[in-house]
Amino acid sequence: MKERLWNSNYCKVMAANFTLFFAFYLLTPLLPLYLSENFGVTKDVIGMVLSGYTLTALISRPISGYLVDTFPRKKVLLWCFFFFFIFFAGYLAASTLLLFTIVRTLHGAPFGSVTVANSTAAIDVLPSSRRNEGIGYYGMSNNLAMAVAPSAGIFIYKYTDSFELIFWLALVIALAGLITDSTIKYNTPQKTSLKKETKADSKHDLLDRFFLTRGWLIAVNMTFFGLCFGVLSNYLAIYGKEVMGITGGTGTYFMLLSVGLIVSRLQGTKALRQGRLTHNAAEGTILSTIGYLLFVACPNEWGYYGSALFIGLGNGHIWPAFQNMVISIARHNQRGTANSTLLVSWDVGMGLGVLVGGFVSEHFGYAAAFWTIAVAQACGTLLFIIATKEFFNKRKLEN
């Protein structure tokens, strides 16, 4: 008999992941406005204040992957989620720019940690025969949050003119996620068995506890895709306004992108269920390449909004396929490390995208910056087809 996918624990992890990202995206579009209105800071200072969050999230992920694999996973998950929740109260208490900067920067650490811990919990509560498709569905919870939360935050602020209310809502929503995760029941490997297995495998050095060295090429490949999305997400609005003459279309763009993400995750579950991970990944990389090329080659509304669907469809295939691939080459006590490796590689790519996009656009213009990422996406696609696909097939482990 086919094992049950939608068990209660899996549904709880999905719900907790939705609240996690909903609380995050509820604030994201409003924080620049909050800093400008409450503290009167300039745009460059706003960028510096908000960038600390990403930096601490990036640093915390390898550490949290190690903690998830070394200590009881549920305890690690709940502690990470608790700190993610409690930091929202810090925004309410931060009365100066310095205090706000400290709170925002430190908040990135539990966010980075809880994303690793919660996704690892999802893998643990899934039956092994349904894991591939389960991971595909799991990502829809943060896709839905990304589609709904920013618009909800802007709508609430528009009619209440209260940042304080937004912070309270984020706090309550995060608390709901924490409570939901606390009710999960699953069997985590005991610490003793983890220690024995780790000692028995002397080939794995200290680095391997923080970065899945067996999956290094998958991580490099994901960095290409993160770089492309980093440029897109940070320079989309100004490119649309200055080059295409489209104003106020950023929200619609990301809504269409989210639709593409959700549709492709639903459409790709059959291939995932059959274990055709490389098929899904290749399809996703090609669709995303078409999207980036369409964006820059057709500087009009059809190309602009059409690219959102193609990039969403592509990333909706890439993410579950790559996550399943990196999990499939890791031992069961390296699932946290595998998840953190994939997330860190994406974050590194996003960071490089901000730097590359800024440098190229400053010296050669925004069109050149987007042509650069179209080429980078194509290179990432070729890398997968030529090398990463075979790399994975040689290293994947049996369940």
Descriptive report:
The protein has 399 residues and is an all-alpha fold. The chain is built from 15 helices and no strands.
Describe the SSE topology:
Blueprint: H1 8-27, H2 31-39, H3 43-70, H4 73-93, H5 97-125, H6 131-160, H7 163-182, H8 191-200, H9 216-244, H10 250-267, H11 269-273, H12 277-297, H13 301-328, H14 335-364, H15 366-395
Question: What global shape is seen?
Answer: globular
Radius of gyration: 21 Å
Oligomer kind: single chain
Helix content: over 70%
Number of strands: 0
Q: How far apart are the first and last residues' alpha carbons, in Å?
A: 18 Å
What is the N-to-C succession of helices and strands? HHHHHHHHHHHHHHH
Structural class: mainly alpha
Major sheet details: none
**Structure annotation, total helices:** 15
Average of pLDDT: 86
How much of the sequence lies in strands comes to under 5%
| pLDDT < 50 runs, ≥5 residues | 190-203
Question: What would a concise description of this structure say?
Answer:
The chain is mostly helical and 399 residues long. The chain is built from 15 helices and no strands.
Task: For this entry, give a set of tags.
15 helices; globular; mainly alpha; about 0% strand; single chain; about 80% helix; about 400 residues
